[in-house]
Amino acid sequence: MTQIQLLIRQPNRSEEFHSIFDDVYVSLSKTVLERLVKKPDGKVKFRAYAGYAGWVFGQLEQEVMRGDWRVVQADAETIFNKSASEMWPDLIRKTEIIGIEL
Fold this sequence. Notes:
Elements: E1 4-9, E2 18-21, E3 24-27, H1 30-38, E4 45-50, H2 59-66, H3 76-81, H4 84-95
Antiparallel strand pairs: 1-3, 1-4, 2-3
């Protein structure tokens, strides 16, 4: 629990962050986190995630094929505009297979 990863959404590209997609970036910087908390900017949104998970070569792919993980298209609106209690159930619903009985 010593590692914090930040997902940041901001309109302007920044060299201090690594681009993920569109206007979403990632940072591991404690300095960036402190700045975002102490001097909030109305145009910048962020989520902080603590902890670490790692896999050996091929392990994640096997877990995805087994159905342990659900993979969805990145969606900044869901990540940054919903509460955590809404976000995870919404993402899970997007990956559920809907069966239709004939």
